[in-house]
């Protein structure tokens, strides 16, 4: 007969902490108290589709006085976007989908709240076929290629 040692306990299946538990503040503090190596990192804009980010300086500039402010899209450009979009029979959502932007971006441009972004302006120009920049705002876009 084999002798059994009743003082020792063997745990066959002990689950570790779940991902949510391992990330909790209490679990991190407990691991630090035990002297374990703990690595924490905060992911920026995790789980979001953020393409156009705002820096701290931009937010600071927004809070500044009148002489230090961002230029917004003029109402004239907003009206041209709206008329061009409606002449093509597109809703704001349709236009946004066509240029791979969010519908809120189109709404901001049409209402004059958006800070002009040349990439977005170029996409909208091509989608509605009207110029939005320069002297000829509202004129049809030339379809010819640019010569170098």
UniProtKB/TrEMBL annotation:
It is found in: Nucleus. PROSITE patterns: HTH_CROC1. Residues 1-25 are annotated as: Disordered. One of its GO terms (cellular component) is nucleus. It comes from Oxyruncus cristatus (sharpbill). It comes from the Eukaryota. InterPro entries: Cro/C1-type_HTH, Lambda_DNA-bd_dom_sf, MBF1_N. Its main location: nucleus. Residues 81-135 form the HTH cro/C1-type domain. It holds the Pfam family HTH_3. This is EDF1 factor. One of its GO terms (molecular function) is DNA binding. Keywords: DNA-binding, Transcription, Transcription regulation.
């Amino acid at each position: 007969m084999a002798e059994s040692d009743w003082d020792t306990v063997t745990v066959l299946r002990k689950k570790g902490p779940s991902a949510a538990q391992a990330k909790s503040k209490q679990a991190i503090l407990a691991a630090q108290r035990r002297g374990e190596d703990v690595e924490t990192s905060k992911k920026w804009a995790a789980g979001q589709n953020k393409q156009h980010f705002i820096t701290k300086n931009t937010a600071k500039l927004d809070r500044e006085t009148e002489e230090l402010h961002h230029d917004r899209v003029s109402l004239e450009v907003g009206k041209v976007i709206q008329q061009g979009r409606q002449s093509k029979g597109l809703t704001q959502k349709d236009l946004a989908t066509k240029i791979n932007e969010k519908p809120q971006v189109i709404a901001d441009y049409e209402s004059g709240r958006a800070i002009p972004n040349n990439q977005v302006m170029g996409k909208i120009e091509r989608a509605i076929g009207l110029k939005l920049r320069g002297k000829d705002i509202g004129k049809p876009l030339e379809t010819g290629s640019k010569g170098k």
